[in-house]
Specification:
- The longest helix is centred in the middle third of the chain and has 22 residues.
- The chain has a single domain, classed as Winged helix-like DNA-binding domain superfamily/Winged helix DNA-binding domain (Arc Repressor Mutant, subunit A, Orthogonal Bundle), CATH 1.10.10.
- It is mostly helical.
- The protein is built from seven helices and three strands, in the order H-H-E-H-H-E-E-H-H-H.
- Strands 1-3-2 form a three-stranded antiparallel sheet, sandwiched between helices.
C-alpha cells in the first residue's frame, strides 16, 4: 500500500462497476459457462496473458493456495483446456499452459464480452467513453493486469512451454486486428 488516502466515493463507484463487470463476464462465457466456472476461466486468462506458469505462480496470480490451484488445474486438464508438463531445466518443477481449446474458450468469451461492453459504452457520449477508458486502464494497470495487446501470441506461449526461452508478456505492441485468435 502506498499510504495514499482513498476516496470512498471512488471505492463505491468501482464496487458498483465491478458488479456490472462480473455480470458481463458471466454472460460472456455463454455456452462455456456450463463447463467452465468463472474461477477456471480466470486461470485460463492468466495462462493466456502471461504464458506458462509454475503452479505456485499461477496460485499467486489467482490469489488462491497452491492446492486449490492444483485442483482447479486438474479439472481444466480433464477438459483439455490446459496442459501440465515438467520443466526441462528442473524436472521437479511443473508448469501449466493453455491449450488451443483453452485459448478458444478465452477468445470466444472475449469476443462476446467485447460486444456486451460495446453495447453498454454506446449508451455514453464519446467524451465519457474516453474518460471510462482512461480510468479503467489506470485501474487495471494498478492491479497488474496485462493488456490484451501484450499477451503472448499462441506460438510464443508454445515456445515458452517447450523451453525455448521466449518471455511471457510482450513488450512490443501488436495491433488488435493482427492477433490470430484460435
Amino acid at each position: 500500500m502506498t499510504g495514499q488516502s482513498v476516496d470512498e466515493a471512488a471505492v463505491d463507484a468501482v464496487l458498483t462497476a465491478s458488479r456490472t463487470m462480473v455480470a458481463v463476464a458471466t454472460r460472456s462465457l455463454g455456452a462455456a459457462a456450463e463447463e467452465t466456472t468463472i474461477a477456471q476461466y480466470r486461470a485460463l486468462v492468466v495462462l493466456a496473458s502471461r504464458g506458462p506458469q509454475r503452479m505456485t505462480d499461477l496460485a499467486g496470480a489467482l490469489g488462491v493456495t497452491p492446492s486449490t490451484a492444483g485442483r482447479m488445474c486438474d479439472r481444466l486438464l480433464r477438459k483439455g483446456l490446459i496442459r501440465r508438463q515438467r520443466a526441462r531445466a528442473d524436472r521437479r518443477e511443473v508448469q501449466v499452459s493453455i491449450t488451443a481449446a483453452g485459448r478458444q474458450v478465452v477468445d470466444q468469451a472475449t469476443e462476446h464480452r467485447r460486444a456486451l461492453i460495446a453495447g453498454i459504452l454506446a449508451r455514453l457520449p464519446a467524451r465519457q467513453q474516453s474518460a471510462v477508458a482512461a480510468a479503467l486502464s489506470a485501474f487495471a494497470a494498478a492491479a497488474g493486469e496485462v493488456p490484451d495487446d501484450q499477451w503472448p501470441l499462441p506460438a510464443e506461449a508454445a515456445a515458452v512451454a517447450g523451453g525455448q526461452g521466449v518471455t511471457a508478456g510482450r513488450q512490443d505492441k501488436v495491433p488488435a486486428g493482427a492477433r490470430a485468435r484460435a
